[in-house]
């Protein structure tokens, strides 16, 4: 079973692929969407869960999501159609680095997906290139809540993206020409809900499919993820979602 399929199964009960509750997702979207006909672009949209909520909660808003994987697109688009908002949601399978939007967006989302551009600041540069004048960026990413063990740091910083503490992260964003007009730091309860959902959905799928050839892989992946969370980065890795406007 490939990584995307595992991730798709793991997000069955928590389609938002970040430690952010539904209530907070709606609140953050309310804060970012400042006009009734706003266009929202999500760079690294996952299955499009943020955008489904945006078009559902904001009549008149249109949304485009871009992700390198189309896992979950069909499900989200079917749900959008069922809710009568399908004509306002478009999901595109493409590398975000290559995506050229036909129109500027009033709101650009990058939630847990800055790594698609390598790091936070290149992700913000990309967001800026897609943003209309007076636009708003919702940027969600990890930071170190506490200094991690070297092993935990090595495990979670295995790509180009390195994390810093919250104050340093926000200072870098401000120095890059952005003004935070709001921010939400995910609570431990949001993290726990996300991680128990991730590991639990995958484990439950394996238990429900005793004859599936990928059952063992799903159980092993779930247990390894749970172990790495509970014995490693629980309470150490933080997640913040910033509502940003360009500093004039
Ligand atoms: C942690 S998930 C977050 C998904 C979504 N923003 C959410 O909060 O539900 C990160 C997403 O970035 C996508 N991604 C990673 N690299 C990408 C790239 N180069 N182009 C487009 N999407 C990418 C992954 O496929 C994944 O869906």
Report on the architecture of this protein:
The chain has 9 helices and 7 strands. It has 248 residues and is of the alpha/beta class. The protein has one domain: Vaccinia Virus protein VP39 (Rossmann fold, 3-Layer(aba) Sandwich), CATH 3.40.50.150. It has a 7-stranded mixed beta sheet, sandwiched between helices. Strand 2, helix 4 and strand 3 form a beta-alpha-beta unit. It is globular and about 55 Å long. The model has no long low-confidence stretch (mean pLDDT 97). Bound molecules: S-adenosylmethionine. The site of S-adenosylmethionine (SAM) has 19 residues, from helix 3 and strand 2.
Estimated share of beta-strand residues: 15-25%
Task: Return Rg in Å.
Answer: 18 Å
Shape: globular
Q: Mind describing the biggest β-sheet? A: 7 strands, mixed
Task: Return the CATH class.
Answer: Alpha Beta
Tell me which CATH architecture applies here.
3-Layer(aba) Sandwich
Overall pLDDT confidence: 97
Strand order of the largest sheet: 3-2-1-4-5-7-6
End-to-end C-alpha gap: 48 Å
> Number of helix segments?
9
CATH superfamily: Vaccinia Virus protein VP39
Helical content, roughly? 40-55%
Query: What hetero molecules are bound to the protein chains?
Result: S-adenosylmethionine
């Amino acid at each position: 079973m490939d990584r995307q399929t595992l991730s798709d199964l793991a997000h069955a009960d928590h389609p938002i692929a970040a430690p952010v509750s539904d209530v907070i997702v709606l609140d953050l979207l309310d804060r970012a969407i400042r006009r009734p006909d706003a266009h929202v672009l999500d760079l690294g949209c996952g299955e499009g869960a943020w955008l489904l909520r945006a078009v559902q909660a904001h009549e008149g808003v249109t949304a485009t999501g871009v992700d390198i994987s189309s896992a979950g697109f069909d499900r989200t688009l079917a749900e959008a159609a069922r809710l009568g908002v399908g004509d306002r949601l478009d999901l595109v399978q493409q590398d975000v680095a290559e995506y050229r939007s036909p129109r500027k967006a009033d709101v650009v989302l990058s939630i847990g997906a800055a790594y698609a551009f390598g790091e936070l600041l290149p992700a913000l540069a990309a967001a800026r290139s897609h943003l209309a004048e007076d636009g708003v960026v919702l940027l969600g990413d990890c930071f170190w809540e506490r200094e991690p063990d070297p092993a935990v740091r090595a495990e979670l910083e295995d790509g180009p993206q390195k994390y810093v503490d919250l104050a340093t992260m926000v200072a870098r964003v401000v120095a890059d020409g952005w003004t935070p007009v709001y921010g939400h730091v995910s609570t431990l309860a949001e993290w726990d809900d996300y991680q128990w959902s991730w590991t639990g959905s995958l484990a439950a799928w394996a238990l429900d499919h005793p004859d599936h050839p990928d059952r063992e892989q799903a159980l092993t992946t779930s247990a390894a993820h749970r172990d790495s969370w509970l014995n490693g980065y629980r309470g150490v890795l933080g997640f913040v979602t910033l509502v940003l406007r360009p500093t004039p």
